[in-house]
Structures are given as structure tokens and as C-alpha cells.
Design a protein that fits this description.
With 177 residues, the protein is an alpha+beta fold. It is built from 4 helices and 4 strands.
């Protein structure tokens, strides 16, 4: 049989266990359970304002009246002259509008194309008409073309302040003159 000491020890352990488990719940008082409020999203939102109304306009009659005078008849001599002029005009090569009077600024020539492109991007953000041109292993940074030489001369001074590079003003040579 078990001794008195063992019985007392088991009884003490049971009382302590009951105290640890039950006593905090009894002394805690009224428990409040928190529950998150859930708001449901409506399937169709309710409109708070009146619907907008648009005025429907009648279509405008834009038909044009035909001329009252008859069309002039072209003779064979006039049509032959016109054909000869067309042949002469086609023989003259088309001239680019910039061929004689346009200018560019050659700002710098860089070996690294990525650096040249970053300079061009920066200048374009500042409002300049900047481009790159690959030539003999170098990537040239070019501003223009523009027909106003004085405008580009002022830009050379501004660009020197921005980039620290002294640009040269050159005549613009189009690819297809």
C-alpha cells in the first residue's frame, strides 16, 4: 500500500493542477470576445448623383453644290504640252528643303555608344533635337538640323554649359539630296 506521504504528495499535485488550470478562468472575470466586423461589398453600387444627359445634335448637311459653269475642254495641244512638262519635272531630282540652308551642331564623338545615347536622352529631355550618328567607330552626338544658324549658335553656348563640350556648327548634308 501506499504510504501517507505518497498520498499527500499526489493530493497536493492534484490541487496545484486544478489551481493552475481553473483558478485563472475564475479570477479573470467577464470575458469579452472580439469579432471583426465584416462589411460586404455590394454587387451593384448605388449611384448618388443623377445620370448625365447629353444633347443629341442633328447632322449637318455638308453636301457641296456643283459649279454652275461647265468644265473647260482640254485640246490635244494643251495636253501634249502638259505631258512634256511632267516629263521634265520628273527628270529633275527632288530637292530636300534643308539642302542649301540647314545647319547642325556636332557636339561630341564618343567610342561608347551607350554613353552617347545617354547624353542624347538627357538633351532630348531638356528640349533639344538631339540624335546619334555612327561613323568610323565613333558615335557622334548631333543637334539639329535647323534652318536658323543664329539659333544654333546660341545653342552651342548653352550646350557647352550643360555638357562641357564645345560643339561645332556644320552645314547639314542630307542623305538623299
Amino acid at each position: 500500500m501506499a504510504s501517507k506521504f505518497q498520498n499527500r504528495l499526489v493530493g497536493t499535485i492534484i490541487l496545484v493542477a486544478i489551481g493552475v488550470i481553473v483558478l485563472p478562468d475564475v479570477l479573470d472575470g467577464k470575458k469579452s470576445h472580439y469579432q471583426e466586423e465584416i462589411a460586404s461589398i455590394p454587387l451593384k453600387p448605388e449611384l448618388e448623383s443623377d445620370l448625365e444627359s447629353f444633347e443629341i445634335l442633328e447632322p449637318v448637311d455638308d453636301s457641296k453644290a456643283l459649279p454652275d459653269t461647265p468644265v473647260a475642254v482640254v485640246t490635244q495641244e494643251e495636253s501634249a504640252e502638259e505631258e512634256a512638262l511632267e516629263v521634265i519635272v520628273k527628270a529633275i531630282p527632288e530637292r530636300n528643303e534643308y539642302q542649301d540652308s540647314a545647319w547642325i551642331i556636332q557636339l561630341m564623338a564618343l567610342k561608347n555608344a551607350e554613353n552617347a545615347q545617354s547624353v542624347v536622352d538627357d538633351l532630348q529631355k531638356r528640349g533639344y533635337q538631339a540624335h546619334t550618328k555612327l561613323e568610323n567607330g565613333f558615335t557622334r552626338v548631333i543637334i539639329g538640323p535647323d534652318v536658323s544658324k543664329s539659333k544654333l549658335e546660341r545653342q552651342v553656348i548653352e550646350l557647352e554649359k550643360i555638357t562641357g563640350s564645345k560643339g561645332r556648327l556644320l552645314k547639314f548634308k542630307p542623305l538623299n539630296p
